[in-house]
Amino acid sequence: MSFIRAAASSSRAIRSQIGASARRRYATAADPSKPSNLPLYLGGAGLVGLAAYVYINFSAKAATSKAQQKSPLDPQNFVEFKLKHVEPYNHNTAKYVFELPDGHASLLPIASCVVVKSAEDSPHPLNDEKGKPIIRPYTPISPPEQEGELNFLIKHYDNGRMSKYIYELKPGEKLAIKGPIMKIPYKINEHDQVGMIAGGTGITPMYQILEYALKDPSNKTKFTLIFANISERDILLREEFDALKKAHPDTFNVIYTLDQPGSNWKGYKGYVNREMIKQNIAPATLGDKVKVFVCGPPGQVSALAGKKDGMKQGTLSGILKDLGYTEDQVFKF
């Protein structure tokens, strides 16, 4: 199965506007389910304002060939979208395809996510112990210009209340989605080298950036992705990353590492460590020419770069700090 879509035709004007677990189980362990708190995901008004600004600026200028003037998504309000169909991916993950009205594209800026909750008329609304809606962030894997669909790759965790809720959705049922929520404005060629370190489903923001940047013919940035998983069958989007590596050998490399490799596995083994990073990620001495993105379970992020502080980055620590990287060089999704 391949999720890669041929890039839709878009102008350079659009690109210039957009261009802008414990340590031993951290690689892939699921974060225990907790009651949702919307401010935890949206942060203060500044973040919402940034999301709204990018949304309006992007949507106003990214008209498609069908004269689409804005995204069907709303950064200020939840909008309900029907589940079109589900495509099983592996033993615990599936691709969920939601229908966008009138064949419109999402026009999501890079890099951004959305937040989701149960629909208002859901027969089984997903609420916390206080009766408040549980809200969770997800990063779509469909490109911004893909028409008529918004796609998510979601792993089903037995103790993940939202993933279980989505897993039980039937085609035709709805999910309330709000966004985009801007994470970090990605600009083509802003850095010479970009290192990416991901674990499990933390791969989706990395895929979003790579899919966008590598299809841009002007891209000169060299990307290196270190992707940690439990076993070989848990590697999400492997076919897509291998295809990107083959198509862009000079600007993209992917390294897989497994906690529980099979006897025939020839790649890295174990958790992402100091030597693995030194061997594959551009050094901190490159200054502002290098950026390192980190996304994965909280334990992994903490071991590599220190804990996040809600929606704030938090103090840089861990392996990347020990290797000399600065807070300006590291971004935690």
UniProtKB/TrEMBL annotation:
Q: List the SUPFAM superfamilies hit by this protein, alphabetically.
A: Ferredoxin reductase-like, C-terminal NADP-linked domain, Riboflavin synthase domain-like
Q: Which GO terms describe its molecular function?
A: cytochrome-b5 reductase activity, acting on NADH
Recorded superkingdom:
Eukaryota
EC number(s): the record gives 1.6.2.2
Q: Which residues form the FAD-binding FR-type domain?
A: 76-187
Asked if the Swiss-Prot or TrEMBL record annotates the protein with the keyword Kinase, the reply is no
What is this enzyme's class at the first EC digit?
Answer: oxidoreductase
Q: How does it sit in the membrane?
A: Single-pass membrane protein
Record-stated family: Belongs to the flavoprotein pyridine nucleotide cytochrome reductase family.
Q: List the protein's name.
A: NADH-cytochrome b5 reductase
Source organism per UniProt: Laetiporus sulphureus 93-53
